[in-house]
Amino acid sequence: MQQDTGKLFVFAAPSGAGKTTLVHAVVTKHPELRFSISYTTRKPRKNEADGVDYLFVDEDEFMRLRDQGEMLEYARVFDNYYASSRSQVENHLADNRNVILEIDWQGAQQVRESMPECVTIFILPPSVEELERRLRDRRTDAPEVIERRLRDALSDMSHWDEFDHVIINDDLNQAIADLEDVLAGKGEATATSNQALRRAVEGIID
Questions:
Q1: How many helices and strands, by DSSP H and E, does the chain display?
Q2: Nearest-10 crossing angle of helices 143-157, 128-137
Q3: Pairing, β 55-56 against β 80-85
Q4: Is 41 helix (H, G, I), strand (E, B) or coil?
Q5: What is the CATH number of domain 1-33+98-206?
Q6: 83 forms bridges with which residues in the sheet?
Q7: Which secondary structure element, helix H or strand E, spans residue 11, and what is its range?
Q8: What are the tens digits of pLDDT across the range 83-130?
Q9: CA-closest candidate to residue 11, choices 1, 22, 3, 2
Q10: Alpha carbons 28 and 30: distance in angstroms, whole number
Q11: Domain spans, the chain
């Protein structure tokens, strides 16, 4: 997966699709990949460290950085802001490192506008029923929260066609193999232009 210049890989997925599990599995196998650590204005949790889990800043500092052009993309989620660091991504790329961004589809749109050479990847569950089962099996959310997450997920899934690749996360090992192909510059089977893939996705969403 080494090449002359680093590549930026942008991942998005609906809640419950298994994006984080999939991405972390690939990074474990390929430690040369670099994560971009996001800025956030929310307070650190007990097990979180500044500069490791997030770059924790207050809202004034966040806005100052945004106005200076430091944010590659940003969004307000509930009462807090989150953003990807432009300088961090650019430094990794300049160092010939492949970089992974885990963001939502709206953030992916912003990154695509700023860095059109990026490779965008959308993770889908094998079915809506499986997505709902995964959300309920977490057993961390109230029923009304699960319903909201499911509605949001269905809305997110409608944006799959904006991405370069779609990986259907049914069997984890197969999904990892598909993702490794994309990272290696292959991935014809998961390209959104692939008619077989399009039929499979339409079967999930319809």
A1: 8, 9
A2: 140
A3: unpaired
A4: coil
A5: 3.40.50.300
A6: 39, 74
A7: strand 8-12
A8: 999 999 999 999 999 999 999 999 999 999 999 999 999 999 999 999
A9: 22
A10: 6
A11: 1-33+98-206, 37-96
The string of DSSP letters for 70-114 reads: -EEEEEEETTEEEEEEHHHHHHHHHTT--EEEE--HHHHHHHHHH
- How much is the mean pLDDT over the chain? 92
The answer to whether the CB of 166 falls within 8 A of the CB of 201 is yes
What are φ and ψ of residue 5, in 5° steps?
-130, 150
pLDDT category of residue 79 using cuts at 50, 70 and 90: confident
Strand-pairing partners, residue 81, are 76
Look up residue 178 and give its two tokens: 């598909």
110 and 121 Cβ atoms separated by less than 8 Å:
no
Bridge partners, residue 74, by sequence: 83
What pLDDT score was predicted for residue 3?
54
The CATH topology of domain 37-96 is: Guanylate Kinase phosphate binding domain (3.30.63)
Question: What DSSP designation does 189 have?
Answer: G
End-to-end CA distance of the chain: 35
pTM over cut 0.70: yes
Per-residue DSSP letter, 44? P
